[in-house]
Fold these 3 entries.
Entry 1:
Amino acid sequence: MADRKQTSSPLPAAQKKEVQWKFWVFGIAILLMLIVFLQNSQEVAFKFLFIVDTSAPLVVLLLVAAAVGAVIGYTAPILRRHRHQTRKEYGKN
């Protein structure tokens, strides 16, 4: 039995640790946004399409801009994928 080669068994899932780079990037982005928000707490004048003319803390405006960017970044690929699937269904390239 000494002639048999021992095959190494794969490591259990608990011992295999992959770096979750998406979580690290997301965490670093949140940290950087938090630093920018905390450093910009002054009041600023805000005008939007000749409708809204007010002043607000810059932090609030930055949060709104970040939220709008996150919504666009989340929904744009979904809409693009849907459009691509629709074209495939109707036989268009």
Entry 2:
Amino acid sequence: MAEKIKFESPLIQLAVERKLISMEQFGQCRELVKKSRRIGLESSFEEVLLKQGFLTEEQLHELSEIITLGEKGDFFGGYRLQRLIGKGGMGKVYEAVHEFTGRKVALKVLTVQFTKERTNVSRFFQEVRALAKLGHPNIVTLFDAGKAGRRYYFAMELVDGPSLAEYVTKKKMLDEREALLMTVQIARALSFAHAGSIVHRDIKPENILVDEHYTPKVTDFGVVMHQDEDHMTLTQEGFMVGSVHFSSPEQVEGMRDIDGRSDIYSLGATLYYMLTGKTVFTGKSAEEVLTKHLVGTWTSPRHHNPSISPAVVRLIRKMMARSRDKRYQSMDQVIAAIQRIILPRWYLRVLAAAGIGILLFAAGSLFEVFTGFWELLLH
């Protein structure tokens, strides 16, 4: 039915096709637009939709973004776009379905203004190459990459769940065991990346997704550093890349020789956030926070969450040592340190269970002996 009607714009047609507005609402708006013009008012169809409360500004903006991607409206690069799920510094991420396979994906599209800069395009494809190398259960999977019109894109695994930032916000803070189990999985993912000479350099709760099984998955490798001479040109001495609250001191200083120990610092800051719901450093400006990474004194996480064990405080302190030479020197060392914290408790539980079992067995044996002796006396 919608196909036989001449719509005022592709945006209105898309709104009807997606059942965001009904045909009755469409007809009402069309009549209101005509009445407005008869009395000398020029109201667009979109403005009437907003005034009538049939669509929100956010929905209009999202439909507009989808329309601008391609001449066929919500169809782009072999994918049918469903909804906007995120925005980043270089592009937007849509939930999309591959037209031929039916696979649901997260489609990252680089905005046109960034394609004019060769460095930005290089960074975009650096992320693609990084993801292509990283087949790991705790890293989002890359499915496809390419160019449609003037826009570059790549399709990756669609994680059905919130970011770690959203997850922690909802729970206020995580208990120690859950936070450590999350951290050790993230550390394994980064250990795998580091083994391939790839440093993430922007580890933070927003760049970790939590799926329906509560498994963390690292994403957004847009500012990765390949540790070889061919890729070093993308980062210049004195230019900081990373996020304010989770950046390592060497990133704040703009050092060029960033290595995996920077990710260790950021993961330590992320663990702190998981346990407390707060960032390690706060300030009235980005500059103030960055300065604290260099010279500030951090507040123990136990101040915000007294249930945190001293062993975990020591773990975070070493992960976030200001000098990278004083941190753990690899993610494998971080994993081993976490396991030393988790496993003793596991051993204690096993020993306690075994001890109870032995006591019950001994008590049962003694009862049998006593019963047998009593029967002898009676006979």
Entry 3:
Amino acid sequence: MSDADDKPKSQSRSHGRLQLRASLQPRDLMEEPRLVKGAFIAKVITLFPEAFPGTLGLSLTGKALDFGLWRLEAIDLRQFGEGKHRNVDDTPAGGGAGMVLRADVVDAALRHAREGTPVDRARWPVVYLSPRGAPFTQATAHRLAAAEGITLLCGRFEGVDQRVLDHHQIEEISLGDFVLTGGEIAAQALLDATVRLIPGVLGNAASTEEESFSDGLLEHPQYTRPTTWEGQEIPAVLQSGNHAEIDRWRRAEAEALTRARRPDLWEKRGR
């Protein structure tokens, strides 16, 4: 194999639409999809680019992806691996089980993802999905959705060499107090929660204002037809047509649920 074969190839899988440009040559729209001007862009560094878009390609986030309201770029970490076999990991310094993603390999991938993005992390956050990170919240999703885009690093094995995380000042975010085999599922969950907040994705902005955590409370119970099911009736107030009473009922139910199920949230509201 020649030396050229050992050089990383600047290739990644993109999902979404690129800006249209006039051309005399026909092109494959699946390879070069359109992108609405100013659309949110998500770059995901992963050993499994085939995992994307996954569930993000379904329902409203999938339609928004097709319409070019946001774009997803899956960057294959393996292409930056070292040597003939594109090695991306090595044994932990000091001994121990498992493998650790190499600093030089991850650095190369991050530098590739950084091309054309703002330096200001408020405009373009760079996040490592990690169980030791700060808890992911609805407030975090709103902050990320307000950015121009985001770069996500999906870990594997025992994690990532700390030096590259420190060097690039990467923000660490956790979905909760549990461990997954890799960051891909966490990345999809984070992106789903973030992308749905982008204007136009859900179609109805009011729907994000009344859901769980939007006001520090869990969401009130929801009902729909049939009016009677298994002997249970929809609460009469919801069928009254009195919107002021309905709002008061929903607020009271949300507060009661939060006190009972999430006393931690309820305590924060009282501070």
